[in-house]
Design brief:
It is elongated and about 105 Å long. 49% of the residues are buried. The longest helix has 19 residues. Helix content is 44%, strand content 13%. α16 packs antiparallel against α17. It starts with 10 loop residues before the first helix and ends in an 8-residue tail after the last helix. It is of the alpha/beta class and 574 residues long.
């Protein structure tokens, strides 16, 4: 277990102290793991809580317009009756206290008993239980439907009603209506580790997902094969919409909630899919929020919550709050359509070729370039695995993406050798992100300039022109990239390959033999990178840890040079 903690027994207290340091409007209840507003209101006090590990819930929702206090138990454990009772006593106001409780056995029992004890002391207390989980049958044999991320929306509505001065009965009624209406279902891509336990709560096999899970690291209702986000979105929303009886024309608010270990990129993709799915079925998306609202430690996955809304509910949702974890007031209003701004096109350049200068080079080069592209597509798993060891793991997929783009665009390239190279440069520059795309584009553009000089008479460029093109393209790549041989980059394969190719042709070797020597030199250079300390690129951050692993970019050069060699016939085959 690797976590940024001290003693596992102190995580809740230290976490709350960190929140209080960052947000002076939040104070801590002396001797307890309770966050409460520094200035207590005289309106209805709204109190919630439960086990910790769901951050930013619950302390992150303490603020004017949301919670008055959050009672925090140990990780995934209900707070004690006495702690809840002490909180009720502390925040009580003449207007009364509303407890919002997620439907878990420990929370229901402890909050209910604390409420009874508080009433016996003359405190006006109402309780609303949230069980927005649609994965479990309402009348099943389990402990019942659980409270999930929809609880946060109940916090918002109840807090806004209390801040508006509504009496306890009205605040409870609005909270109850929201709790009854909201539906939530989630999916996990993996488990989480409770600090005190030190091991994951459950294990998922490769290619498995956990569907309909709770928020305490417990398994879901069933395991399903992994599938793209669109399929999962459809499964979750279909269950929610069916369970809540939502039909075309219904106005809804959507909460896309990360479970703690899901990157914002993936949550945004899920949000996109949800918006499209809802629109296709005629549901009107009035509000949408994306982020971590109620998590399960570092669990990868998400939950989706849908809340039917009308103008009155939207007014509560849109009301201001100082709670640090609730999005800024302007967030939440979805676009009706995605705005698109026309991009400025590059100035038209003079065509390098016209029909009169076409020399059939495009078809001559089609076979060799197709072999290169197919080889790099097939090498994606190998290159990706290698790049994970020493980089960010994207080289294989980047070269695959670029190769597929070249295959797609190829027939539109100018029909000269230089035109093909320029077309490929433009394609990879657009298709390959990071540094690989620009570097390969530089190599190809410089090579195109050299080749253009060699085909002025309309003939296909000879072998020595291609050797010079590789050499000058490699030199330009090194100049712009700021690297040299020995820096553990693709140059450690390209430079010796270019030198070997020119030397072999100078020695009188035929094109295939010369290219074979180039491949051999490139392979030798790539293999040697495993013993070089990296000085360029992301692997330079690893230092000696990169030793023993060859540079993936250099290996990729060997792969595409080998593909070219395989397509060059030997003298006996011509």
């Amino acid at each position: 277990m690797k976590k940024l903690i001290n003693d596992p027994q102190d995580v809740v207290r230290e976490m709350l102290e960190g929140i209080a340091w960052a947000h002076p409007e939040i104070s801590l209840l002396e001797g307890e793991t309770v966050a409460l507003r520094t200035v207590l209101p005289q309106t209805v006090a709204v109190v919630s809580g439960g086990g910790s590990g769901h951050e930013p819930a619950h302390a992150g929702y303490v603020g004017d317009g949301m919670l008055t206090a959050a009672v925090c138990g140990d990780v995934f454990a209900s707070p004690s009756v006495d702690t809840i009772l002490d909180t009720i006593r502390t925040v009580r106001s003449p207007a009364g206290v509303l407890l919002i409780v997620k439907s878990y056995t420990g929370d229901r029992l402890n909050f209910a008993l604390a409420a009874e004890l508080a009433r016996a002391e003359g405190i006006d207390v109402a309780t609303v239980t949230v069980s927005d989980d649609v994965a479990l049958a309402a009348d099943g044999e389990s402990a019942g439907r659980r409270g999930l991320a929809g609880t946060v929306l109940v916090h918002k509505i109840a807090g806004a009603a209390a801040a508006a001065g509504a009496p306890l009965e009205e605040v409870a009624r609005e909270a109850e209506a929201a709790a009854a209406a909201v539906g939530t279902m989630g999916v996990a891509l993996g488990s989480c580790t409770v600090p005190a336990a030190g091991t994951p709560s459950f294990q998922l096999g490769d290619g498995e997902l956990e569907l309909g899970l709770g928020i305490h690291g417990e398994p879901g209702v069933r395991r399903v094969p992994a599938e793209p986000a669109e399929g999962l979105i459809a499964t979750l929303l279909e269950q929610i919409v069916t369970d809540r009886g939502l039909t075309a024309g219904a106005r809804v608010a959507l909460l896309v909630n990360g479970l703690g270990g899901t990157p914002p990129m993936e949550l945004a993709i899920v949000t996109r899919g949800c918006a499209q799915w809802l629109a296709e079925r005629g549901l009107v998306l009035e509000r949408v929020w994306t982020g971590n609202f109620l998590t399960a430690l570092e669990m990868p996955g998400c939950s989706l919550s849908l809340l039917p809304v009308d103008d009155a509910v939207l007014a509560r949702i849109d009301a201001p709050t100082t709670a640090p974890a609730w999005p800024a007031q302007h967030v939440g209003r979805p676009a009706r359509t995605i705005g698109r701004t026309a991009k400025r096109t590059e100035p038209a350049r003079a065509a390098h070729t016209d029909a009169a200068r076409a020399n059939g080079a495009r078809e001559t080069l089609r076979g060799p370039i197709e072999r290169v592209c197919s080889t790099l597509v097939g090498a994606e798993p190998e290159l990706t695995a290698m790049d994970r060891e020493v980089g960010d793991g994207d080289l294989g997929i980047s070269l695959q993406r670029g190769s597929e783009a070249v295959q797609r665009d190829y027939s539109g390239y100018d029909d000269t050798a230089a035109g093909v190279l320029r077309g490929m440069a433009s394609t990879v520059r657009r298709a390959i992100g990071g540094t690989s795309g620009p570097l390969y584009a530089v190599l190809l553009m410089r090579a195109a300039t050299v080749i253009e000089e060699a085909e002025t008479d309309g003939t296909f460029p000879p072998a020595d022109a291609w050797a010079r093109a590789l050499a000058e393209g490699t030199e330009e790549l090194g100049r712009l990239g700021g690297a040299k041989v020995g820096d553990r980059t693709m140059l450690d394969a390209l430079v010796p390959a270019a030198e070997a190719l020119r030397e072999a042709l100078t020695d009188g070797e035929d094109a295939r033999a010369a290219l074979a020597r180039a491949v051999e030199a490139a392979d030798k250079g790539a293999t040697a990178t495993a013993q070089l300390a990296p000085r360029r690129g992301r692997s330079s951050y690893l230092g000696e840890r990169a030793l023993g692993h060859p540079d993936p970019g250099a290996v990729a050069v060997v792969r595409w040079l080998s593909a070219l060699l395989d397509g060059v016939p030997s003298p006996s085959e011509r």
